[in-house]
Amino acid sequence: MHVDLSKIESSGLPYVNVVKGSNVSEKYKLLDTNSIIDTLKNRGFYVNSIDISRGKNASNAHVVTMAHNDLVTAKGDLITVNFINSFNGTKAFRIGLGVFCFVCSNGLWAGDSFYMSPKIKHIGMVDEKLELAIAAVLGKVGELNQSIDKLTSTTLTDLQVAQFERKALDLRFGQTTFLTSTIGQSRRPVDDSPTAWNVLNRTQENVINGGFKFGPKSARKVSSPAKLAELNSALFSEMLQLVS
User: Fold this and answer.
1) Rounded CA separation 184/218 (Å)
2) Which residues pair with 64 in a beta bridge?
3) Which residue, among 110, 116, 125, 55, has the nearest Cα to 86 in the 3D structure?
4) DSSP H or E stretch at residue 38
C-alpha cells in the first residue's frame, strides 16, 4: 500500500502508525520509523515515498525512501536513502542507497552488499548500530555515482541483454523454463538503447510493475515492499556483476 504523503504532512500525523508487535520478546527494542525519518530529515533529507505491506496489522514490514536535493546523479536523478523496517519482529532493519529516476518515476535499490547495511535486529544496542549504518551508507554515495556512470557508458551485447533478462525472470519467478518473455521491453524511447543502465531500468520497471508477458501469462505487479526491495537489490547486483 502506497502512503499518501500529502495528507500525512498536512495533518501532522506520524508517517507510520507505530504499534509494537504483541508476539515479540522482552528483549525486543523498537526502532521507530518516525524517529529514523526525523534523524534523516535533520541531515537535509525529505520523504519521497512510503510503502506498507497489505494487511490489517500496522506493524507489517514497510519501505521508506528519502531523498536529498544535493544528492543527484550526473543525469539529474535523485540518489535516495531507502530503509526497510517492521514492528512485529518479522523484518530486521536495513538501510541502503538507491536512485529515483524522474523519467519513469521509478525507484531503484543499489543492491550490492557494498551499498546495503547489515541487518540490524531489534535487540541490543540498536541506536548505536543505526547511527553507524546511516554514516556508512552515506559514505558510499560517491562510489555509487561511479557505478552508475559505468553502467551508463557501457553498451551491452545482445547476448548480455538476453542473459540479464533470463536472470531477471529467474529472480522474479524462480528457475523458469519460459522460452519467451517481454520482461526487457522498453516503455519509452529514451530507454531503447542497450546501455547497461537502460537495460537495468527497463527490466526493473517491468519486474516491479508487472504487465509483461512470460510464456502465455502476464505478470502481476509486486505488492510486497519487502519483495520489492529484494528484487530491486538483486537486479542491481546482477547488472554490476555483468559489467564488471
Assistant:
1) 14
2) 50, 83
3) 55
4) helix 33-41
Q: Please give the angle made by the CA atoms of 64, 68 and 72, to the nearest 5 degrees.
A: 110
d(CA 81, CA 60): 20
Per-residue pLDDT tens, the chain, 244 aa: give them: 566 666 566 666 667 776 666 666 777 777 888 889 999 999 999 998 888 776 554 446 788 999 999 999 888 888 999 998 887 766 788 888 989 876 555 677 776 655 677 778 777 777 888 888 889 889 999 989 999 999 999 999 999 999 999 999 999 888 766 667 888 888 888 788 999 999 999 999 889 888 888 877 888 888 777 788 888 889 999 999 999 8
CB 50 within 8 A of CB 15: yes
Q: Taken in order 31, 223, 67, 139, is the CA torsion positive or negative?
A: positive
Encode 7-29 in three state secondary structure. Answer: HHHHHCCCCCCCCCCCCCCCCCC
What's the gap between Cα 110 and its chain centre? Answer: 7
CB atoms within 10 A of CB 95: 24
Beta strands in 165-223 (DSSP E): 213-214, 217-218
- Can you say whether the dihedral through the CA atoms of 30, 20, 48, 77 is positive or negative? positive
Query: Residue 244 to residues 151, 166, 167, 230: CA-CA distances in angstroms?
Result: 10, 18, 16, 21
What stretch of H or E contains 79? Answer: strand 78-85
Which amino acid belongs to residue 196? A
Please state, in angstroms and rounded to a whole number, the distance separating the CA atoms of residues 61 and 51. Answer: 9
